[in-house]
Design brief:
Elements (H helix, E strand, L loop, with lengths): L2 H13 L1 H8 L1 H12 L7 H8 L4 H4 L6 H11 L1 H11 L6 H19 L10 H11 L9 H10 L12 H18 L2 H10 L11 H13 L13 E9 L19 H29 L3 H6 L3 H4 L8 E4 L5 E8 L12 H9 L4 E10 L4 E8 L19
Parallel strand pairs: 1-5, 3-4
Antiparallel strand pairs: 2-3, 4-5
Helix pairs in contact: 3-4, 6-7, 7-8, 10-13, 11-13
Length: 397
């Protein structure tokens, strides 16, 4: 992602803020209307949903796109079935992409049975992300495939969406989170945003709606900005080593108390981790393109964003012969000896795929110059995972 381009577009956004605000303020009205009225347990679910979505027309009904109308028609015909679908969609204990796909599949099946004459139910990823964002505006972002595709291209985002793929949602969420960080640093923009919010608006304390509003404005209202000169991606130093050749430091127990802002530290570590994963993803693609292996370059997948956490690795890549490589990326701005953490899933995956598992330790990473160093550690991670920090506990009833 070209951060300098993002900053340039933010300057354009501020210049045209007043006119954009007048056309897009309905989003904040729509969320407040939903937040103030929606009740999943309402006795009259149809009337409650109709009221809750009464200010969401621009988000859900336009031209030949009618998800709101089809939703209400199906609720009127099958209120309890649709209520159950929303209960499952809004259950944050389960995987996001699975919830989205299940809602889409179950709605289509029900709608086809009730309204067989209607060819479309319009419950696509855009509509479902509207439902999620209205319910959890601090977690999600309004989504349009075309908007995502165009914005990703304009700011040189590493990932290009594929139409209709549910994996787009994870990639889009990641992009929005990275853009939000740049927006949150611009106090002038935050002040402009704060002044426009009246009593009819949702108070966008996490700036998710502001982030999407900015992304939409770049694609809808602004001409392409010529990219400023930035340093190309560069590996300052690269080494590869087996885990058997590594020595790690075993730390002694320390019971000294301290007050640390873990929440902000974790958020910043995640952001740097995401940037490091994207950097490695781009480097892997470039490696294959430079070696005339364009088909392999196309197959590389940033699975941590397209499928989610828990696989035990971040990037599915290959060697020049086409054999898979499972890459876990750990990124720091600090030195090579900066402490990092390995999850149980990562450790176990490294045991299963010990001949094809790589830990890419990215260190001294500089997001401004897009430079860093990499130590590639091949093999299972058992001998370097020497200090357990947490234990999972489940009590019997």
């Amino acid at each position: 992602m070209n951060i300098e381009l993002v900053k340039s577009y933010i300057e354009e956004y501020k210049k045209h803020f007043e006119s954009i605000h007048n056309q897009e303020i309905y989003k904040w009205h729509a969320i407040k209307q939903f937040q103030d009225n929606f009740d999943i347990n309402s006795k009259d679910f149809y009337s409650n949903m109709e009221l809750s979505l009464s200010k969401s027309e621009n988000l859900l009904d336009s031209n030949k796109y009618f998800p709101r109308r089809m939703l209400l028609e199906n609720i009127e015909a099958s209120p309890e079935q649709i209520r159950e679908m929303f209960q499952l969609l809004y259950d944050e204990d389960f995987d996001l992409l699975e919830r989205v796909e299940n809602f889409q599949k179950d709605f289509r099946k029900l709608s086809n049975n009730v309204f067989p004459e209607k060819k479309k139910d319009f419950q696509d990823h855009r509509a479902i992300l509207v439902y999620l964002t209205l319910m959890y505006p601090e977690r999600y972002f309004f989504y349009k495939y075309g908007m995502f595709e165009k914005f990703a291209e304009r700011i040189d985002y590493a990932h290009k969406p594929s139409i209709g793929k549910v994996e787009n949602i994870g990639l889009y969420q990641n992009l929005c989170e990275l853009v939000r960080y740049e927006i949150q640093k611009d106090q002038e923009l935050l002040n402009l945003h704060e002044k426009r919010l009246d009593k009819k608006c949702y108070r966008d304390k996490d700036y998710n709606v502001l982030t999407q509003d900015f992304i939409y404005a770049v694609t809808q209202y602004f001409d392409r900005i010529i990219p400023p000169k930035v340093s190309p991606k560069e590996i300052v130093e690269e080494t590869e080593i087996s885990t058997n050749e590594l020595e790690t430091k075993i730390e002694n127990l320390n019971f000294t108390p301290s007050i640390v802002n873990h929440h902000q530290n974790d958020a910043e570590n995640k952001r740097i981790g995401d940037l490091g994963e994207i950097w490695v993803f781009e480097l892997e693609k470039e490696f294959f393109e430079l070696n005339g292996k364009k088909e392999l370059a196309k197959k590389i997948e940033h699975v941590a964003k397209t499928k989610g956490d828990g696989l035990g690795y971040d990037i599915l890549s290959y060697d020049l012969e086409g054999n898979p490589k499972f890459i876990e990326v750990k990124t720091t701005k600090g030195k090579i000896n900066t402490t990092f953490f390995v999850t149980r899933n990562e450790l176990e995956k490294s045991k299963i795929e010990k001949d094809r598992y790589f830990l890419y330790r990215v260190y001294e990473y500089d997001e401004k110059t897009n430079k860093g160093k990499i130590k590639k550690i091949k093999g299972e991670l058992t001998n370097i995972c020497n200090t357990p920090m947490n234990y999972k506990v489940t009590l019997k009833e």
